[in-house]
YneQ
Amino acid sequence: MAFGLKREELRAWKEKVERGEIAFITHYWLDDRFPNMKTVTKVGCQDLDKLIQWGKKYGLKPKWVHHDKKYPHYDLIGSFQVDILKAEGKLNQLERFKK
């Protein structure tokens, strides 16, 4: 279950994905499979080759791409999430959820 997003943030993320940009969005997230994880970052791009090449820079496997309708994306959690957001200069995506 996802929450903590504004409608405008989600719309902007979807538009970037549809334009073939690498787009980031972070939100609160609860999943019984990962009880210690409270947030997830979705990194999406409609250009699947571009997304996979981007992911390879960080050791992400092509089979980890979620093929979600028009919005293929990686889900980043845990150390992948922190390390990649830091490397991309987007740690503010995560910091807003740290309380």
In short: The first strand starts at residue 2 and ends at 3. Helices lie at 7-18, 48-56, 78-87, 92-95. The first helix runs from residue 7 to 18.
